Amino acid sequence: MTHAAPAPLSIDDLRRARAAARCGHTIEYFDTLESTNTTAAAHARAGASEGTVVIAETQTRGRGRLGRAWVSPPFRNLYLSIVLRPAIPPGDAPRLALVAGLATADAVAEWAPRVALKWPNDVLVDNRKVAGILTEMDADGDHVRFVIAGIGVNLNGTLDDFPAELRDKAGSLAMAVGAPIDRVAFAARVLSCLEARYARFLAHGFAALRSEWNARSCLQGRQVQIDDGGQRHRGIVSGVADDGALCLRDAAGHDVRIVAGEVTVVDGYQRG
Ligand code: BT5
Description:
This protein has two domains: 11-216, BirA Bifunctional Protein, domain 2; 223-265, SH3 type barrels, CATH 2.30.30. The protein is 25% helix and 29% strand. The protein contains six helices and twelve strands. It has helices spanning 11-18, 36-45, 95-109, 173-177, 183-204, 210-216; strands at residues 27-33, 53-59, 78-84, 116-118, 122-125, 128-140, 143-153, 223-228, 231-240, 246-249, 255-258, 262-265. A seven-stranded mixed sheet has the order 1-2-3-7-6-5-4, sandwiched between helices. The protein has a five-stranded antiparallel sheet with strand order 11-10-9-8-12. A hairpin with a 3-residue loop joins strand 4 and strand 5 (122-125). Helix 1 (11-18) runs parallel beside helix 5 (183-204) and helix 3 packs across helix 5 (183-204). The mean pLDDT is 94. Residues 35-37, 59, 62-66, 68, 70-71, 79-81, 121, 129, 132-134, 150-152, 154, 166, 170 line the site of biotinyl-5-AMP.
């Protein structure tokens, strides 16, 4: 697949598309940041309102969970963080990663309908990770001050963008569909999908999104192993629960709830 010359995002078009929206009414745009999540958190601490978005063309220290890095080559992809100020207990905030993942999958599905979610926060197409979500909370006792939802989507990248160890696991939306992806159109879509999913989450909780999340999951009915810092669980996935936990049935027929950990499918391949 060939690439157009690297071109900056048409940020004015994106701003126009979202000017009156809850998610993206204000969009701060940078060439280079360490991490859009870090900058969005600084803006939130300084009073940025809910729905403020930070986008960078590249990140020098893009982050995944648990100190992992997010590969962020310039001009091809989307690195976006949004300030959320949900009136929810801090313990419910991790569900926002699932909400943002579902919204990202909704947007990806418009280009690649075979998108799949892998609990907790991966978005896959053809069994390759095309997007990841990182939510970070700032709370004061039982009050959530803000949550930053960071969304990284490989839109126009090629395998050359990835280090060797990711080349059979990561991919881009353009690789999946065989055509370049309009970054403004995608960014506008992901913000509008997030706005819809977030509103439903605030009104009715994750329970209202659970069946759609499960319908997109590549883990339903699969035999998996979960490594959860020291503890290892095996079982067949029955789905994500109303509180966002992953539910398994183990070999003894017991239901096991997983709230964190790395999932490996052990019955062969993942549906992509
Ligand atoms: C994630 O973490 O998947 C969350 C990634 C969130 C990135 C966004 S970009 C905007 C915002 N600003 C940030 O600094 N972060 C957010 P995790 O589940 O821990 O997965 C990280 C793992 O995914 C790495 O250890 C690699 O194996 C793999 N990986 C790294 N970069 C990748 C990429 N560009 N595409 C696919 N996989 C990647």
